[in-house]
Amino acid sequence: LRASFASKAQKENDQNFNYNSQPQASYKVAVLGAAGGIGQPLALLIKMSPLVSDLHLYDIANVKGVAADISHCNTPSQVRDFTGASELANCLKDVNVVVIPAGVPRKPGMTRDDLFNINAGIVRDLVSAVADNSPDAFIQIISNPVNSTVPIAAEVLKQKGVYDPKKLFGVTTLDVVRANTFVAQRKNLKLIDVDVPVVGGHAGITILPLLSKTRPSASFTDEEIEELTVRIQNAGTEVVEAKAGAGSATLSMAYAAARFVESSLRALDGDGDVYECSYVESDLTDLPFFASRVKLGRKGVEALIPSDLQGLTDYEQKALESLKPELMASIEKGIAFAQKQA
Ligand code: NAI
Q1: pTM for this one?
Q2: What is the pLDDT of residues 297-307, one digit of tens each?
Q3: What region holds the Lactate/malate dehydrogenase N-terminal domain (predicted)?
Q4: Gap from CA of 35 to ligand 1 centroid (Å)
Q5: pLDDT category of residue 25 using cuts at 50, 70 and 90
Q6: Mutation test of ligand 1: which of 32, 104, 110, 243 has the most ligand atoms closer than 8 Å to its C-beta?
Q7: What's the CA-to-centroid distance between 104 and ligand 1, angstroms?
């Protein structure tokens, strides 16, 4: 009796933790840069998804151990490791979603743009391989500076003749996650209910939380708006400084990216009610790329949601106008880099 009780309890624990009772796993996800600070916890969180059948982990080094370790979790997906450029094509074959956290992170005193020289080339090469091997996949770029690496990816895909703007995403979910957390704390709201759209881009003043569009609706004093906006914009730097040279946000980033991956998989699986903020090709403003709330569907971005940008407060409108030159410069820098290399 004791043995059967133990095994029943164990089974329930496993089911609760692993979501084994949830939908059938059938999607293939690749993480490029999977041995890194973000890549490892992100791979673990994706391993917990009930929607994933195959998890492909790629890095230039140290990925074998990460894959061996994660593969022991008794969740549905099969984990495989791929090391170095010669194994990249195999890693990418037939995948539905490719997440890219490959590259170097910031150290104290650095801006995201300081990473451009190294990360631009890494993203170019990885996206080029995606274009050759899984041109239909959703491509989700985490590597900074996202404001430039997404335009680089778009140019590479265009050069390869496989660009689908609906399937290229800059991952800005962490800005939303942070905004939700900080607003809930400040206003004493139930965290699970709070949703703050964050638009613009993913660096400094280009990160624009639209506090007036907070759901459930909340009122803020001018001081609160200024304090929360600045904290959300500098939250990455808060972590970089706290880590004092040991990197930037990795755990909260992995959490945020896993949420974005899971939302994408639900959309691919036919859920008609999936909305996330993401930095995508856009016609909501005069900028060619812009982060906003988007509706996700089977084919990627089903619709951009313009309503968040309507009826902005004076503070938000002014912040929107002042972020545009910086964001445009980052976009142009990315495009120029990719075109020079072509
Ligand atoms: P990390 O240095 O810990 O890991 C990066 C990994 O990329 C390493 O394992 C490295 O071997 C790998 N890598 C380097 N070149 C590669 C290549 N050509 N192909 C495949 N893998 C390669 O860095 P961390 O902390 O994981 O950050 C990764 C990136 O994510 C950075 O650019 C960082 O700025 C960015 N980031 C983005 C955020 C966002 O909100 N979008 C938030 C936090 C970080």
Answers
A1: 0.95
A2: 999 999 999 99
A3: 28-170
A4: 9
A5: confident
A6: 104
A7: 5
